[in-house]
Structure formats: C-alpha cells, structure tokens
Amino acid sequence: MNQSYFYLKLETHQLHMSYKNEVRRVRVLLPKNYDKDEAENYPVVYMHDGQNVFYSSESYSGYSWKVIPAIKQNPDLPKMIVVGIDNAGQDRINEYTPWKITESPLPEDIELGGRGAVYAEFVMTVVKPFIDMHYRTKSDKYHTAMIGSSLGGNISAFMGIEYKDQIGGLGIYSLANWITSKAFDSYIDRKELDPEQRVYIQVGTQEGDDADRQLMYGNMKQAYIDCSLKYYKQLIKGSVPIDSIRLNIFADEEHNEKAWAKHLPECLRFLSEKWS
Known about the structure:
There is one protein chain. The protein has 276 residues and is an alpha/beta fold. 32% of the residues lie in helices and 20% in strands. Residues 1-5 have low confidence and may be disordered.
C-alpha cells in the first residue's frame, strides 16, 4: 500500500486571545489528499484540551485521543478537518467553567470558574472564523461539531446551547456538570434547544479522579453517571429527538483519554450521519 495514503498533515497556528493578551496554540489536522482535492470542502470537528488530542507524548494522562489512528483505521468515516484548541493549563478550570464554582468543599477564599463565556467567545469569534477563512470548510452548523471531555464536556455542552445556530454536533464525554449543576440546570431550562442538533454522550462507571475529589462531596462515580443521565433528559425535555442523541454508559471505564479514544470512531460516525 502506498505510504502517502496514510499521510495526514497537521498544521499549527498561534491565535491571539484579546481578553488575556496572549496567544493560544490551535492545531489543524487535514484530511488525506487535502492539497490535491482542491474542489473539496470539509466538515470541521473542534476539540478542547488540544494537548491531549493528537500525541500521547504531550497528553496529560500520557495517552492521547488517538485522532490520527482513528481516522486512518476507520476509512468509512467521511473526510473531516479536526481542530485541537489547547487548554490553558492552570487556568483550564476557569476557562471551561461558564459559572463560578460555589457548590464545592473548597475554602471560600478560592475563586474558581466563570471565564467559560469569554473562552467560548474566543473559539467562536476568533478560532472558527480563522479556520473558515484559511481552510476549505463547510462552515454551516450542520457540518460543525464540537467534542470535549470532563470540563471540556462542560464547555462543549454550554457552547452547544449558546451557539446552537453555529454548532450542529456535540460529543460530550464524562460530563462534569456536578461542578456547577445548579447554574447549568437553570441555564438549560431557560434556553430553547435545537431539535436538529446531534449529541453523543458517554460516561464510564468508574469515573472521577483525585483532582475531582477536592471539588466535591459524595459519591464521585455516581455523580458522573447522574450528570450524563440528567443532561440526556434535559435535551429530551428541550425537544431534541431521542434518535438525535446517543447515550452510552460503559461498565468499568475510567476518566481518561484511553476510555475516550476507544469510542471516538463511534462518536464521529454518529455526528457525521447527516453530513452530505
């Protein structure tokens, strides 16, 4: 088999975040033969926690989402552009949480969360327009998806509502909505949801890690399952048809990229069902 068949190009950009006055690394994985097929335009999948998306050597857990092997090993998947947006490291929890964290055992003088809306705005008003301008994308909402895990799932769920006219597919892995559950619940209750959105939801029965433990009372494993079930019900109540939602609860799976990567092809398959 010709080696070039497997060649996928990864390009790196540094985009300016005005509210922080710093740059953020954004990487773009192009489909096979992107340069040759000049008449082709492609759907785009945006992924949070970009450091964990492409290479295990960079990943927080030492294991990445394995996006490149997922695309190579599943030739039935439609061609797509995948955009990995790096997280803010120490500031990740603030950027991925749209509301201040008030329901936790943390000392009261520690302020966390609340920068999610400005981060979301950066993604939708800086990153997406940049990608649409510099690459041959299908920029409409039906061909735009967003995937995130844990707090990255929280910000994806928020953005799926806030920017429903621009995002048609969501991959919500190991949703950590327990961190600001009251705020999210009242937010989703007030909003009109998009019945045409497709949402893939996944959670394991052995979720949670040491970092979570500092932020929550009670049964961590159950909290994760409850979050995903509640979000599923909230979508249905908001008139998202049951056929447009895929909910998976996986026995014994943990809170890490290894579990998330395992089911990425299924998520992409589900989100791309309506791509033309």
